[in-house]
Design brief:
- This protein is α+β, with helices and mostly antiparallel strands.
- The chain contains three helices and six strands; from the N terminus they run ααββαββββ.
- Strands 2-1-6-5-4-3 form a six-stranded mixed sheet, covered by helices on one side.
- Strand 4 and strand 5 form a beta hairpin.
Amino acid sequence: MTANSENTLKVAQQAFEHFTHGLATGEWQGFLDMLTEDFTFWFPMGKYHGLNEGKEKAKEFFEYVSECFAGGLTLTLDRITSNETTVVFEFRDEGLLLEQPYKNRVAVSFDVRGDKIYSYREYFGSDGKSY
């Protein structure tokens, strides 16, 4: 593993800890502080479907996620894959979505520049009720 790959993994893992904390508690500031000003994110459905640009849009999105999962989400990390610039976290999450039981398998991808995350992509595909 090169020094750049090691830094990418270290930064992404720190961001993922903040991301996990945000999903569990609705407190997103630690994660938002790790985003570049030109941050972009891609989400697969709903109000934020497709490419979204800017740190302010990200703040709006993650606050919306916390509204949908008011009791928080619990994550179980299954796998981490990384290269020079990108780290993918595969996990299972569980909680209440708008007060209905929710379970899913998710993969999120963080692109790292220096000590910040400049891009995020999320993928999921189960029926929301099973692992």
